[in-house]
Design a protein that fits this description.
This protein has 157 residues and is mainly beta. It has one helix and nine strands, in the order ββββββαβββ. The strands form two sheets. It has a five-stranded antiparallel β-sheet. A four-stranded antiparallel β-sheet has the order 3-8-5-6, with no helix packed on it.
Length: 157
C-alpha cells in the first residue's frame, strides 16, 4: 500500500544486500500506522511457532524536523502495529551521538522488536510513519548468530 500522494521507491544497490526501499517523496507528514495505512507486506513461512526478533535495517538518516527521532511501525499477522523509534543524532555530546557514529561507520542501523509467529504462513507488515526512513532489509531471527550481513536470505517460492 503506497503512501498518500506518493509511492514506494526501490533504490538499487543501496545497503548491505540487494536494494533498499523508501517512501517518495520523503518530505511528507508523519502517518498513523494501521488500517489501510501505507505499508510494505512480506509473506514469510515459519517452520515452528514461537517468539522471534524482528530486525529492521535502515540507512543512517537525519531527523531533519527535530521530532526526537524517526519512527516506523511493524506488525506480524493481525497484531496491532508497534511503533519503533530510531534515535540517531549527529551532535557531539548528545546521548544518541554514539548510535549515529556506529550507524554511519557501518552504513546501517539495526532496530529490533519481538513478535510471536505461528507455524506456517505469516505476514510481516512494515508501516510507514516518518517518510524519511530508508529500509535496507528485514530479518526474522530465532537464535542470534554472529555475522556482519545477517542471516542468509531465504529461498523464494
Amino acid at each position: 500500500m503506497p503512501p498518500p500522494g506518493g509511492q514506494w521507491q526501490v533504490i538499487p544497490n543501496l545497503g548491505r544486500t540487494l536494494s533498499a526501499v523508501t517512501a517518495w517523496p520523503a518530505t511528507g507528514e508523519p502517518l498513523v500506522p494501521g488500517g489501510d495505512g501505507a505499508r510494505l507486506e512480506y509473506p514469510v513461512v515459519m517452520h515452528e511457532e514461537g517468539e522471534v526478533e524482528l530486525r529492521v535495517l535502515v540507512s543512517p538518516t537525519l531527523d531533519i524536523r527535530h521530532r526526537g527521532g524517526l519512527r516506523y511501525a511493524v506488525s506480524v499477522n493481525d497484531e496491532a502495529p508497534r511503533l519503533v523509534d530510531i534515535r540517531l543524532d549527529p551532535s557531539p555530546g548528545d546521548p544518541d551521538f554514539t548510535a549515529w557514529e556506529a550507524a554511519v561507520i557501518d552504513n546501517v542501523h539495526v532496530a529490533r522488536s519481538r513478535h510471536r509467529v505461528r507455524a506456517g504462513a505469516n505476514t510481516v507488515k512494515l508501516w510507514l510513519v516518518d517518510p524519511a526512513l530508508v529500509f535496507q532489509r528485514i530479518e526474522l531471527v530465532r537464535r542470534a548468530t554472529p555475522t556482519t550481513l545477517g542471516p542468509e536470505e531465504s529461498v523464494r517460492r
